[in-house]
Amino acid sequence: MLKRQYIAFAFIINCILVLGSPGDRLPKFKECVRKCDILTCGNSQGFNDPSKQELRNWKKEQMREGLFQELPLDWSLRLLGWECFPNCDYQCQRLVTEDRRAKGEKVLQFHGKWPFARVFGVQEFFSTIFSIANFVPNYRGYRMLRRDYRYEQVKGNTEIVNLLWGYLIISLVSLGAWTFSTIFHLRDTWTREKLDYYFAGATVLSGFYGIFCRVFRLYQIKADTKRRFFAIFLICCYIGHITRLTLDWSYTYNMQANVLCGFLQNIGWTYQSLNTFVYQSETRRGSASKKHIVKRVTDALHRDIANPEVNWTLLPIVLVTSVCFGMSFELLDFAPLGDLLDAHAIWHFVTVWPAYYWYPYMIKDINYNIKQSKLK
Questions:
Q1: Nearest Cα residue to 267 out of 316, 218, 217, 201
Q2: 2 with 351: CB under 8 angstroms?
Q3: Does the pLDDT of residue 124 top 70, yes or no?
Q4: Which of 2, 278, 291, 354 has the fewest CB atoms within 10 Å of its CB?
Q5: How many CA atoms lie within 13 A of 130 on its CB side?
Q6: Digit-coded pLDDT (tens) for 151-198
């Protein structure tokens, strides 16, 4: 679910990455890739043929030192989609990086990414593990929502069913997003990267649909037409979004679209949190205040900020804040610790715990602020 909270920020980072990386431009790296491709892949990329003497020297070096993996590749690599030339690219990244470290030189990025060490063929091991970890609470949340959805269907609570359906969409799309995030980090390819972004963009719109329906009460029966038109509108926006990217991929456009939707979502969750907090606080006093909203919020915070019967409604603010804080790890962007753990992987780790609390909050909000109150 929380992937929608950071994907806009990820697009900002990628706007920088696509400009190229210093490692790509190293003559030593280019020559290494050429040598590996000619020796092990049959010159699949059509590089300039070396002289006969140069080729003999390369073959002797390969026999003596075994710098490059020969075909066929290990089964674990083939299982994850590694092919000969991408494997050459990876091996040369590692060789150049190890050489630079031995000389005390700075580790460089290649193709906009750090030169990770593979684990059982997995390209970004910790990002993969933490993507899977993010899948777990979202699946747990999906099952909780599905259980309540079926229960409310039997009871005939149409309005609750409408809202739970919106939340179910969020959970299902989030499951898809974390699935493709896992696949992408297993083995980085352009096709997998696009699918990762497509599903991440879908989480932004699904999340926007969910909070929009809650804040503006589109789950109510009298708002059926508005809710359906809003859903159709968002679907059309998403189709247009994917079409735009298919015809002309643009990280800048992705960034702008997702930053806007993500910003509006955060405003929506913050408003929803404060609104229900004030309502619960004033309900306990027995009457609603007619003071200015800022004064009402201030008074409610003063009275009940430490009251667990009321302050649970502030949880979305805590979760949104923690997610935004986690984004700061992306700004660090340091070379992977042990060639495995980078800032992006840590960011994936940080997003695991909020999802465990977000779904129970949504269900509790329905039970206390809709079903058992007059806050509709």
A1: 316
A2: yes
A3: yes
A4: 291
A5: 20
A6: 999 999 999 999 999 999 999 999 999 999 999 999 999 999 999 989
Of the candidates 92, 168, 185, 197, which has an alpha carbon nearest to the alpha carbon of residue 133? 185
DSSP 313: G
State how far the Cα of 108 lies from the Cα of 217, in Å rounded to an integer.
51
Write out the two tokens for 42. 């049959």
Alpha helices in the chain (DSSP H): 3-17, 27-40, 52-65, 75-79, 84-102, 125-155, 158-186, 190-215, 224-247, 251-285, 293-304, 308-311, 315-326, 328-332, 343-350, 352-366
Q: Is the Cβ–Cβ distance between 245 and 258 less than 8 Å?
A: no
Tokens 């992705």 -> residue: 254
Block residue for tokens 């465990």:
356
Q: Which of 93, 41, 86 is nearest to 62 (CA)?
A: 41
- Is residue 355 located within the same domain as residue 310? yes
Q: Which of 121, 36, 133 is nearest to 85 (CA)?
A: 36
Are 96 and 28 within 8 A, CB to CB?
A: yes
Write the CB contacts of 175 (distance below 8 Å, at least 6 apart in sequence). Answer: 135, 138, 139, 142
Show which of 102, 132, 154 is a domain's final residue.
102
Give the dihedral sign, CA 335/97/187/240.
positive
**Helix pair 251-285, 190-215: axis angle to 10 deg:** 30
State if pTM tops 0.90: no
Please compute the mean of the pLDDT values over residues 273-293 and round it to a whole number. 81
Domain boundary among 71, 102, 133: 102
How long a stretch of residues is the chain?
376
Cα separation, 226 vs 264, in Å, equals 19
What is the number of other CB atoms lying within 10 angstroms of the CB of residue 116? Answer: 26
Measure the CA–CA gap between 93 and 117, rounded to whole angstroms.
10
How far, in Å, CA of 80 to CA of 122, rounded? Answer: 7
SS3 330: helix
Domain enclosing residue 52, as ranges = 22-102
Based on the fold, state whether residues 84 and 230 are members of the same structural domain.
no
How far apart, in whole angstroms, are the C-alpha atoms of residue 305 and residue 311? 6
How many Cβ atoms are within 10 Å of 165's Cβ, its own excluded? 18
